[in-house]
Amino acid sequence: MTKRGNGDDVVSVDEEENGGSEKEATTTQAVQVAVNIRPLIAMERVQGCSDCIAIVPGEPQVQIGHHSFTFDYVFGSSALPLDSIFDKCVKPLVEGLFHGYNATVLAYGQTGSGKTYTMGTGYTVRGNTEGVISQVMETIFNRVETLKQEADFQLQVSFIEILKEEVHDLLDLNPSPADYGYMGGTMGSAFGGGMKVVGTGKPPIQIRETISGGITLSGVTEVNVKSLEEMASCLERGSLCRATGSTNMNSQSSRSHAIFTITLEQRRKWDKLDDCGEEYLCAKLHLVDLAGSERAKRTGSDGARFKEGVHINKGLLALGNVISALGDDKKRRDGGHVPYRDSKLTRLLQDSLGGNSRTVMIACVSPADSNTEETLNTLKYANRARNIQNKPMVNRDPMAAEMQQMRQQLELMQAELLCARAGGPSSTEVQVMKQKIAWLEASNMDLRKELVEARGQLESLAQTAVHSQVERDKLKLKLEKLRAGKTFEELDGDVDGQTGSLLKDYVTRIQELECELLQIQNSRFPSIQSSRPVSSHSSDSFGDSASGLDFETTHVDRRVFLPAGDPSGETETVVVAKENLCKQLRELTIRLQKKEAEMKIFQSFDPVYLRLQYERKLEELEEEKQSLQGERDRLIANLETLANAADGSMQMIQQTHMQKWKQLEPHIQSDHKKFSRHYGRKQITAACLLTGLLQISVALSSPLLSLGADRLEKEAGELV
Ligand SMILES: Nc1ncnc2c1ncn2[C@@H]1O[C@H](COP(=O)(O)OP(=O)(O)OP(=O)(O)O)[C@@H](O)[C@H]1O
């Protein structure tokens, strides 16, 4: 959406530099209006004219007297330089040509205001090469050169003038008698000194309307051009043939309206043809240099020149009416009549004004105060022209479109024929199958994407698994090494710093405690000690416990389960007890093995927390050891006393022991509970310690103590 200076909002089809939307235009585009203010010419200076047009700095706004107008662009004077007129206004139209849009550049204004100068219609190869048209030609050929790999281009030019309501072909080498009636000005200088060549001639050019509503000129010469030079030569030839004449206001006044038309046809190459691209496009660019409006009084024209002036003004008046009709919002909304047919000029410009063309109007004005009235009129018309809405659309060749359709039909029928011959499916089935294939291809693409994602996830999982496996193997190895009796020093390389040394300390301390307990046990029952085999590696049994606890093979003297002085029932009781014990211990072993796995996790726990836990437990164990030592001493003393007593008093001693045990039992239970809390995860060590306690009780060897031993054993089982 472009905000128009006069307050109208105009929907632009495409405002990009490339000048062309590839889509069909569904919106309208207003005629763009640029004002070109030429400088005061010598004649005006001589006459002492002054500048009557003011420009609002930085704005496309001009003021004349108390009138103010806003346009799309203002060039000349203190506004934009004239040489930027092509880039700003015309280049987008040229680009649009390559997208199939017709375009028109129309120079309008009073006589001597600079229309021919601006358009460059007075082009000569060796002389005047200024103006819009020469830049248009250059740009077109540059673009063709750039795009020649993608499409085949064909360029044609035609050049006509409307003189006294007659259309003349300026490129016809054999003009009809009607074409050479004019002998004023410089016409025909290139072809025989001031006269058009007389020839057999063709029928006069006629303006026709096509079925689609387009305007064409039948009988006009269209010259195929392949190079810039060829096109420039056509322009020069036509310019020289154009009717010009000298008036008081312009020594080389154009006496006709001239239209130089460039037709661009492009056919996309097969391999460059995409689905949405057009195979064939054809667009026309009309470059129009109108004759200037004039007042006979000022031009000083009389006779033939006066008649020309009348015709010129008539044509311009018709143009003014068309502009008024199109520029009037109300009339346009009501679908009011637009008098295109009132003149040949308006008829020819039908597409350009309110049609399917993209149009730029350049209103040329003189700044001289002597021309104020004409300048004001021009600006008023130009301002009205800004209200004209066109509907640019891509020009397809109907024949080519039909051909394309037929080609597609042919392909389909050929495919059907092949299928029918091979007994294959019908065309409907083929269509369905094609759709299915398309659908399958799409879903295949989706699945491929999912597969790639899944593969990525799998790889990362595999990496994690490998990593975990390596960690597990390392831990396994360490454990095996520890089981094999390796010290922590030997494992130093494998165990990481703080945790390793901490564990080492605690294991050493536990082993020391175990030894101490064993010593207590030995010193408490010296009589029994002598009757049971003492392993030289007493700690090994605990070591084994820690590394798998093979209790089945633990050397426990079976006699420890026998009631004193009852050798008769020894074998049976011991075997049963041993079996029970072994069974329980087997279960214990399995559970401990499970816990062993948890141990690994436990190793990764916070060392500080672990240290505190262990320290607390060590204190408790120390206390327990102290109390046990005290109790041991007392028991030894009692035993010694009792040993001297008679057998009858043995019963009493046993009862005393029983009482003592009952007193101790709650303490032991509470200790065990604490123990199990702190050693919830450190089951192996707990089991070791409990086993130690078990062995102590076993070593006591008395029935009441064996009862305590049973309890301990049971608790050990629960704990684990
Ligand atoms: N921008 C400009 N700078 C300098 N001179 C200019 C400029 N525009 C026009 N002129 C001069 O003004 C004079 C009239 O210009 P031109 O012939 O282009 O007017 P015109 O509008 O085509 O007139 P007509 O309608 O009579 O054909 C010429 O001498 C031309 O060189």
Automatic annotation (TrEMBL):
Domain of life of the native organism: Eukaryota
Low complexity bias spans: 528-548
Subcellular location: Cytoplasm
Positions bound to ATP: 109-116
Major location (coarse): cytoplasm
UniProt-listed Pfam families: KIF21A_4th (PF25764), Kinesin (PF00225)
Start and end residues of each Kinesin motor domain: 30-388
Name of the protein in question: Kinesin-like protein
UniProt source species: Sphagnum jensenii
